[in-house]
Design a protein that fits this description.
The chain is of the alpha/beta class. The chain has helices at residues 6-16, 32-47, 64-67, 71-74, 104-117, 144-154, 192-195, 207-212, 227-242, 245-264, 295-307, 332-341; strands spanning 25-29, 51-55, 86-89, 123-128, 131-132, 138-139, 158-162, 187-190, 201-205, 270-276, 279-287, 292-293, 313-315, 321-324.
Length: 342
């Protein structure tokens, strides 16, 4: 809104308090797509550049500016291909990607640098989730993100962490996804968990970047930061902290993943179980050796689960990965029901 209100001021202070320095300036918006659009505008204003680095299969939103940096969309049905100002680095998938296993993060970081070298204009930013959701809940190979951030900054670009799906304690071991990789981004975008169903999102950045935005082109948001949304956001944050939902995500998430891995000892079509906290992917294959996608197996399982009271959905390029992102209040009883269905 055009006017400050006490709810928004206090909520901004509380939200920024969960983030490391120097991330301290908060812009409130209404959706994750809008947050990523504003992050892009901030980065372009600060760097005076337009070039973007993204990861294969990434999705960051549905509005025009963000479809342009979402390979999941521009390389998918109805897409128009990669825009000239964007370069797509290989997804750092240590399970079935270009490089696998120990040391793959370093190799993916080298591929990232090679891809950046093909960009024929100044770099604005690199945007990434810490677990690539639309790619199939793919955790970034260890060591990749820190090196990719260093490469980006050396080229004059900013580092944007998309926490729209994964942030706010869902990772279990950390409150934010980027903390899994021991990095501090320049801009953080936050969406879905902020309002727990209410349309609320945010962009958090540094004072230096925010000051670059004070250039005469006014920015305001009709509903972003309104008193009702701020009160809802503060309540959601308080519940996450007071009810120890981050710890619950860690405990229940590990219980779920361990349960699926145990089933995998006898179910040969379970190829991989991965994730952090309550952001989990279970990849189905027809053959573990070849890792051939079990697309139909996954589709049949989702339908069977629905008929038995468990709602699931799939993701990944071959639609063969169960994406498991339940409410953070879920307990072991609900997990047992899921495991029985599986």
């Amino acid at each position: 809104t055009r006017y400050y209100n006490q709810n928004a001021i206090e909520y901004a202070r509380a939200l920024s308090g969960t983030l490391p320095d120097p991330l301290s300036v908060v812009f409130f918006v209404n959706s994750g797509s809008e947050a990523n659009d504003l992050a892009l505008r901030l980065a372009r204003t600060h760097t005076k550049a337009n070039g973007m680095m993204v990861l294969e299969h990434a999705y960051h939103g549905h509005i025009t500016s963000i479809i342009d940096i979402s390979p999941y969309k521009f390389n998918g049905p109805g897409g128009e291909g990669c825009p000239d100002h964007v370069r797509v680095a290989p997804i750092p998938d240590a399970y079935k990607g270009l490089y696998r296993g120990e040391g793959s993060g370093d190799k993916y970081a080298a591929e990232f640098a090679k891809t950046l070298e093909t960009l024929d204009q100044p770099l604005c930013a690199f945007i990434s989730e810490s677990i690539v959701s639309s790619g199939g809940q793919v955790p970034l190979a260890p060591g990749f993100l820190k090196q990719a951030f260093a490469t980006t900054r050396a080229a004059g670009g900013l580092c944007i962490s998309d926490e729209v799906q994964i942030g706010m304690g869902r990772m279990g071991s950390t409150f934010w996804g980027f903390e899994l990789h021991d990095v501090v981004p320049d801009i953080v975008t936050i969406g879905k968990p902020l309002g727990s169903g209410h349309p609320l999102a945010a962009v958090v950045t540094t004072p230096e970047i925010a000051n670059s935005f004070i250039n005469g082109m006014e920015y305001f948001n009709t509903f972003g930061g309104n008193p009702v949304s701020a009160a809802i956001g503060q309540t959601v944050l308080d519940v996450i902290v007071d009810e120890a939902l981050q710890r619950n995500a860690l405990t229940v998430g590990n219980y779920l993943m361990n349960g699926v891995r145990e089933l995998g000892k006898s179910i040969e079509t379970i190829g991989d179980v991965r994730g952090s906290g309550l952001f989990i992917g279970v990849e189905f294959v027809t053959d573990r050796a070849s890792q051939s996608p079990g697309t139909q197996i996954t589709k049949d399982l989702i339908e069977f689960a629905r008929e038995n009271g468990v709602f699931l959905s799939s993701d990944g390029p071959a639609d063969n990965v169960l994406k498991i992102k339940p409410p953070m209040i879920i307990g072991k009883a609900e997990v047992d029901q899921f495991l029985d269905v599986l």
